[in-house]
Design a protein that fits this description.
Blueprint lengths: L1 E8 L7 H15 L5 E3 L17 H17 L4 E10 L2 E10 L2 E7 L23 E4 L2 E7 L6 H10 L3 E5 L8 H16 L3 E4 L2 E4 L2 E4 L3 E3 L5 E4 L6 E8 L5 E2 L10 H19 L5 E4 L4 H14 L4 E5 L7 H14 L2 E4 L3 H15 L6 H22 L2 E2 L5 H6 L20 H14 L5 H5 L12 H4 L3 H13 L4 H6 L4 H13 L1 H5 L33
Parallel strand pairs: 1-2, 2-3, 7-8, 8-9, 16-17, 16-19, 17-18
Antiparallel strand pairs: 1-14, 3-4, 4-5, 6-7, 9-12, 10-11, 12-13, 14-15
Helix pairs in contact: 1-2, 5-6, 5-11, 6-7, 6-11, 8-9, 14-16
Catalytic activity: deamido-NAD(+) + L-glutamine + ATP + H2O = L-glutamate + AMP + diphosphate + NAD(+) + H(+)
GO molecular function, one term: NAD+ synthase activity
Family: In the C-terminal section; belongs to the NAD synthetase family.
Length: about 550
């Protein structure tokens, strides 16, 4: 005898309760006669994370209506899916089991994450009990996402008699996350001697990307199935029943390298942000530098060349090679492009401001005016055409404030906001291995904002080979300057970098949202006050 469970690794839109319900029902209809049960991701009906929509009574009422519709319309297959509802006067993150008009089991998520990008304790009360239901003679236990990361819920379910664990997930991507969670699933299965089915969400939601990669581990902890990353996928998993429940081996999708995984997250994140928000496409400024080159490649891979346009906006300081390389990449990728020099606008602003600037030497002010001229041009085109403006700044620049408010920071979405500069280079090289779309000179030449004669990033910043490791330690690992210096970095350099990071929180707070790809991104991950009396100790620590 066999047990057939279908994993529905699908992309749901936050707040689209009716659309998500229809997607679930369509999947259920297709599964009749093929599967005994279908497992969906966490909070299937609302999408994840619904955030403060959960505080609205009308939102919860529509979830109740959706659940009733599923009870009325779903027949012939067990459906295991997630939703938020009130029980005993409290709101819970639930996993329900529906079969032929009956809600036969309902599990309350026990472990509520309240770290990094998660704040479930703001909304939900925790459950405390294991929930099992029979499926073809097998006792099946339920758990939801974070429950698998802590030992107690699965141990409780197995002690209650569970022979199989179904885990509904909305686990967002960051570098190294996929192998980490797979190893965890395998360890839990091995520890308790029961198979685990791990069904993950896929899709972009604001700054988060859910990368899929759903998997199945047998009772010995061996990985027997893995679904593809970054795409919707429906897979049927068959189990042999009898003395010991055993999932039959099936397709195991390939693991991704770090560059593949990050690039996939960027593409999916851009595609879903643009499409789910109803934009007609995207526009960006193409400078001939490496950051805008990577952003353009991602945008085209996400949306298609016909949905992307670029504008080259040279100034008096723009090198000929920058114009040439930008035009060459636009030609290779087949995107609409035009050139709008900023010199007339720059001159007009300088003329208007001449009385205010009298007697003061040129400085960063004039550089920022150039960036803001470009921002005005791009935002005007974005407004007129309904195409979202993609900004092109990377994490290294955002960390130290090497960006202009209302200039190159102006826009609606920042695809590489969480990508350190050294990783930008690796991603460009990775993309060119697939097909050459970024001119090699863009990758090889020293980076420059080209806002002053002969300017290079190294005039204002430490070399990225030194800067990025310091930033990783300070921003992502919360190491103190003393710890960073002890790791071998020059004290003066550390003091300089830490000071730049601390001073520029106000800029980061005004930046567009962007895709999280590191363990600690700016925004929901790292929240520092703008106005504060505490500054990171420097001299006093040494």
């Amino acid at each position: 005898m066999t047990l057939r469970i279908q994993i529905a690794q699908l992309n749901f839109l936050v707040g689209d309760i009716e659309g998500n319900t229809e997607k679930l029902l369509s999947t259920a209809r297709a599964a009749r006669g093929r599967a005994d049960a279908v497992i969906f991701p966490e909070l299937t009906l609302t999408g994840y994370p619904p955030e403060d929509l959960l505080l609205r009574s009308d939102f919860i009422a529509r979830v109740e209506q959706a659940l009733q519709r599923i009870l009325d319309e779903a027949h012939g297959v067990h459906l295991i899916f997630g939703y938020p509802l009130r029980r005993d006067g409290q709101l819970y993150n639930l996993a329900g089991v529906v079969r032929d008009g009956e809600l036969i089991a309902e599990y309350r998520k026990q472990m509520l994450p309240n770290y990094s990008v998660f704040d479930e304790k703001r909304y939900f009360s925790p459950g405390s009990e294991a929930v099992l239901f029979p499926l073809n003679g097998v006792q099946v236990g339920l758990s939801v996402c974070e429950d698998i990361w802590e030992p107690q819920p699965m141990a409780q379910a197995v002690a209650t008699g569970a022979e199989l664990i179904l885990n509904l997930n909305a686990s967002p991507f960051h570098t190294g996350k996929a192998p980490e969670r797979e190893q965890l699933v395998q360890e839990r299965a091995r520890q308790h001697g029961v198979p685990v089915v791990y069904a993950n969400l896929v899709g972009g939601q604001d700054e988060l990307v859910f990368d899929g990669g759903s998997c199945v581990a047998d009772g010995q902890g061996a990985l027997v199935r893995r679904l593809a990353f970054y795409e919707e996928s429906i897979a049927l998993v068959e189990f042999e029943t009898g003395d010991r429940l055993r999932p039959l081996p099936g397709e195991v999708a390939a693991r991704l390298s770090e560059e593949e995984a990050v690039y996939g997250a960027l593409v999916l994140g851009v595609r879903d942000y643009v499409c789910k928000n109803g934009f007609n496409g995207a526009i960006l400024g193409l400078s001939g530098g490496i950051d805008s080159a990577l952003t353009l490649a991602v945008a085209v891979d996400a949306l298609g060349a016909n949905q992307v346009e670029v504008v080259m906006m040279p100034s008096r300081y723009t090198a000929d090679m920058s114009n040439e390389d930008a035009a060459e990449q636009a030609r290779i990728l087949g995107v609409e492009h035009r050139t709008i020099p900023i010199e007339p606008a720059f001159k007009a602003f300088l003329g208007m401001l001449e009385p205010e600037f009298a007697g003061r030497p040129a400085d960063v002010t004039e550089e920022n005016i150039q960036a803001r001229c470009r921002g005005v041009i791009l935002m005007a085109i974005s407004n007129k055409k309904g195409r979202i403006l993609l900004t092109t700044g990377n994490k290294s620049e955002m960390s130290v404030g090497y960006a202009t408010l209302y200039g190159d920071m102006a826009g609606g979405f920042a695809p590489i906001k969480d990508v350190p500069k050294l990783l930008v280079y690796r991603l460009c090289e990775y993309r060119n291995r697939l097909s050459p779309v970024i001119p090699q000179r863009v990758i090889e030449r020293p980076p420059s904002a080209e806002l002053a004669p002969g300017q290079k990033d190294s005039d204002s910043l430490p070399d990225y080979a030194v800067l990025d490791p310091v930033l990783e330690r300070y921003v992502e690992q919360d190491q103190s300057p003393t710890q960073i210096i002890a790791a071998g970095f020059e004290a003066a350099l550390v003091e300089r970098v830490v000071g730049m990071v601390d001073r520029n929180e106000y800029k980061r707070r005004q930046a567009p949202p962007g895709i999280k790809i590191t363990r600690r991104a700016y925004g929901r991950d790292r929240r520092y006050p703008l106005t504060r009396g505490y500054w990171t100790p420097l001299e006093s620590e040494r």
